[in-house]
Amino acid sequence: MARIKAVLLDTHALLWYDAAPQLLSPEATRLLRDRGVTVYVSAVSAWEIATLVRAGKLPEAQPLLADYAGTLSRLGFTELPFAARHALAAGLLDHPHRDPFDRALVAQALLEPLPLVSRDEVMQTFEGLRVIW
C-alpha cells in the first residue's frame, strides 16, 4: 500500500488528540505524530466545536476555541478552508446521514481527496470514502 502523505481529521479526532490522546487508535496516533504526514483540519470542525460549546454540550473545548489557530499551529496541523464546491458536494451527497458537519467533512475528504481519520462508524458507510482508525 502507498504511504499516506496527508489526512483530514474528523472533529472528535482533533479534540482527542489535543486533550485526550489515549482515546485515539494506535494507527491514528502514529499518523498524527508523523511529521511526514500533512494533517488537515477543516474549517467545518471550528464551526462544529463553536456550535457545541455555545450550546453547552462541549464546555471542555472552550480553551481550544480561545486560541484555535494557535492550537492548530502548536499541533502542527493545517487548516483546510471550506469552499462553495465543498458545500455543494455535501448538499448533494446521496446518503441518508443528515448531520451537516459530517456531510461537509465527507465532501471535503472525497473532493481533496484525503483519507478521513475518524472513529465514527457512520463514516464507513459513505461510498468512496477512505476512513482510517
| Helical content class | 40-55%
Number of strands: 5
Radius of gyration: 14 Å
What string gives the helices and strands in order?
EHHEHHHEHHEE
Summarize the structure in words:
The protein is α/β, with parallel strands linked by helices and 133 residues long. It has helices at residues 11-19, 26-33, 43-54, 62-66, 68-75, 84-92, 100-111; strands at 6-9, 38-42, 78-80, 116-117, 131-132. It has a five-stranded parallel sheet. The chain is globular. The mean pLDDT is 96.
Comma- or semicolon-separated keywords:
133 residues; five-stranded parallel β-sheet; 7 helices; 47% helix; globular
SSE arrangement:
Layout: E1 6-9, H1 11-19, H2 26-33, E2 38-42, H3 43-54, H4 62-66, H5 68-75, E3 78-80, H6 84-92, H7 100-111, E4 116-117, E5 131-132
Helix pairs in contact: 6-7
What is the structure about, briefly put?
By secondary structure, the chain is an alpha/beta fold.
